[in-house]
């Protein structure tokens, strides 16, 4: 089973960033998380996390995913090595588009390893 880590939100030492956008529609809801988990199972195990921007470590997975809106808060390594999901795809709950993007990204990046 391949592993996906989805950066669902960002924080600093566990606290919400003062400048962090409060865009609820741009985050996968609990229902959407369940649907994504079911759509990607059994080939993929997906974990949703809140990423600490002050952390010195980067989450490790076959595919790392984040909301494009969060790019301003993420380090260069994550932005260069992860899949940015467009805000509009999350807002409209474009499950097939998101699933296809993950699979294409994985296919391209897993071949490099």
Descriptive tags:
single chain; 113 residues; alpha/beta; Rossmann fold; four-stranded parallel sheet; 4 helices
Biggest sheet character: 4 strands, parallel
What is the SS-derived class? Answer: alpha/beta
Mean pLDDT: 88
Terminal-residue CA separation: 16 Å
Strand content: 15-25%
The helix tally amounts to 4
**Could you tell me the radius of gyration in angstroms?**
13 Å
Strands ordered across the widest β-sheet? 2-1-3-4
H/E series: EHEEHEHH
The level-1 CATH class? Alpha Beta
Task: Work out the number of β strands.
Answer: 4
- The helix fraction, in percent, is 25-40%
* Tally of separate domains: 1
Uncertain regions: pLDDT < 50 for 5+ in a row?
A: none
Could you name the CATH topology? Rossmann fold
Shape: globular
Tell me the CATH architecture: 3-Layer(aba) Sandwich
């Amino acid at each position: 089973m391949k592993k996906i880590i989805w950066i669902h939100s960002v924080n600093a030492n566990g606290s919400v960033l003062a400048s962090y956008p409060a865009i609820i529609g741009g985050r996968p809801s609990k229902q959407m998380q369940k649907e994504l988990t079911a759509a990607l199972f059994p080939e993929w195990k997906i974990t949703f996390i809140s990423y600490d921007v002050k952390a010195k470590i980067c989450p490790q997975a076959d595919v790392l995913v984040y909301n494009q809106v969060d790019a301003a808060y993420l380090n260069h390594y994550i932005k260069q090595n992860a899949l940015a999901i467009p805000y509009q795809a999350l807002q409209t709950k474009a499950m097939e588009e998101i699933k296809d993007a993950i699979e294409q990204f994985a296919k391209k990046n897993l071949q490099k390893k």
